[in-house]
Amino acid sequence: MEKGLYWQCSEKVINFKCNKYKYKVMKKIDRYNLRKVILDEASQIMEGLKLAEGTKIPGKFKSITISGMGGSALPGNILRIFVNNTFSKGEKRLAIYQNRFYSLPPEAHEQCLNIVCSYSGNTEETVASLQECIKHKLPTVGISQGGKIQAMCKKNNIPHIELPNPYENFQPRMATGYFVFAIFQLLINCKLIKFDVSDLEKTAKRLEKRIQEYEKYGKRLAKKIKGKTPVIYSNTYFKSVANIWKIKINENAKTPAFWNYFPELNHNEMVGFTLPQTDFFFLMLEDDKDHPQNKKRFFAMKKMMKKQGMNSEIITIEGRDLFEKVFSSLALGDWTSYYLALEYGIDPTPVDMVEEFKEIIK
């Protein structure tokens, strides 16, 4: 099958036939219906909160450590944005450490709540971290769909939050909402943060209402970046969002991508585009509440890269609240990476290289 055919339709073909053809080809490439997964993402907000409704752990904690790898580590990136926003100016914030290794950081042993995340429940680095938690009798909560993590929690009387498995071959990188809001509810239960979650249902409904609008935009972006190397930029506040865009392009579209954030990139990385070694395309995630001087950098960067023969698109992060801003941007990133995969004629769901690598290191 010719790559990119999912969107190519003759102008002579009437619309309904064109659409029928598009979705037939899409279904052939997208064997596990990742499109349906993305369409349903907003529902993870309320479902994630419910997953942790009855889970809490006693103790006075100064920090939390989130252990996880790959898609199961993404919630820690996003959670920090939300948690920091729950504290007033001048109020001491809850420290959040992320562990992406076999052993725990020193902070995990010091008045710290350890949250161990592995969607499959079998990630070897995360299992090793849980073993260390058990050995040292650290306050711990496990989060997984099942696997060794769930079994170890049950055996050692450790609270465990069980994640759903809603679709065939459901990937950890698509479970960010489940993870984020389950942990968010857990922190509320443990009185580590204060937040009224009642408005989140409205946020979820607004995201659901606009999801196909984001789909159309993502499809257009995918056409623009096809055959190029995407570079995703944001401001400092939303740098975790830019990082996740990069990851989704890697895993869904199976292609290299890079990320960074303003203003830091203007002091080093930018100079590397003096002699670019490939055709880059810059996707810049702009926040309307950013520092005025930092906002100038987005447009200045676009102008400079144009002089170097490279194109950019400045994307405004939209939303009535912080949660909507983050998840609307993540949804757009999902759609962009999804349609980029279809442009290349590749199934966006499987990550065959990851599975092959796991077999090699056994």
Write the layout of secondary structure elements.
Layout: H1 15-29, H2 34-39, H3 44-51, E1 63-67, H4 74-85, E2 95-99, E3 112-118, H5 124-135, E4 140-144, H6 147-155, E5 160-162, H7 176-189, H8 200-225, E6 229-235, H9 239-253, E7 258-262, E8 280-286, H10 292-307, E9 311-316, H11 322-343, H12 352-360
Parallel strand pairs: 1-2, 1-3, 3-4, 4-5, 6-7, 6-8, 8-9
Description:
The chain has 2 domains: 41-195, 3-Layer(aba) Sandwich (Rossmann fold), CATH 3.40.50; 201-343, Rossmann fold, CATH 3.40.50. Strand 4, helix 6 (147-155) and strand 5 (160-162) form a beta-alpha-beta unit. It has a 5-stranded parallel beta sheet, sandwiched between helices. A 4-stranded parallel beta sheet has the order 7-6-8-9, with helices on both faces. It has 362 residues and is an alpha/beta fold. Helix 3 crosses helix 7 (176-189). It is 45% helix and 14% strand.
